[in-house]
Amino acid sequence: MTEKGSFILQLYLDHYEYLRSTAITYRVAPDDIDDRIHDTFEIAMKKVDELMTYTDPRVWLAKTLKNCVNNHNRLHANRYNRSLEDYGDLPAPEGGEPLSHLLPARLSDSEKQILIWRFEQRIGYEEISGRLGITETYCRVKVCRAIKKCRKLMEK
């Protein structure tokens, strides 16, 4: 085994229990603790040269573990929340009520129009932005905001 490999192995043996208890304080699910520790040591192996210079690598490991936990939580926080944008390429239901009848009354006329253009008439951002005389980026922002407001009003 190389010097770097034995260094990582020794870190693992010396600090595994510490990282396990640290993960518990970060409220990591018991089934995910070993995965987050594995993620931490995967990064440690990639940055072993840097890590070998630390006088107390335990601090580096704890910070890296915390970052791994935060990244995992951030990536998985919205996995069940899909935006209406995700359904943009689905065919519109035939013979159903027009979208204008389904939208909350408290949406502004411009918000309703944008949602109808985007989801009922399947008009692209470029064309909508041209109709409104705004940039395509701002058009995307307006659609996103209209979706969020629509979702909020429909939850009430």
Level-2 CATH architecture of the largest domain: Orthogonal Bundle
The tally of helices reads 8
Mean pLDDT: 84
User: Total number of β-strand segments?
Assistant: 0
The structural domain count equals 2
Percent of residues in helices comes to: 55-70%
For the termini, the CA-CA separation is 62 Å
Strand content: under 5%
CATH class call of the largest domain: Mainly Alpha
Query: Tell me, what's the shape?
Result: elongated
Task: Indicate the radius of gyration in whole angstroms.
Answer: 25 Å
Output the structural class: mainly alpha
Question: Secondary-structure element order, as H and E?
Answer: HHHHHHHH
* Main sheet characteristics: none
| CATH topology group of the largest domain | Rna Polymerase Sigma Factor, Chain: A
Instruction: Report low-confidence residues grouped into runs of 5 or more.
Output: 87-91
What does this protein look like?
The chain is mainly alpha-helical. The protein folds into two domains: 3-76, Orthogonal Bundle (Rna Polymerase Sigma Factor, Chain: A); 84-155, Arc Repressor Mutant, subunit A (Orthogonal Bundle). The protein is 67% helix and 0% strand. Helix 6 (109-120) crosses helix 8 (136-155) and helix 7 (125-132) crosses helix 8 (136-155).
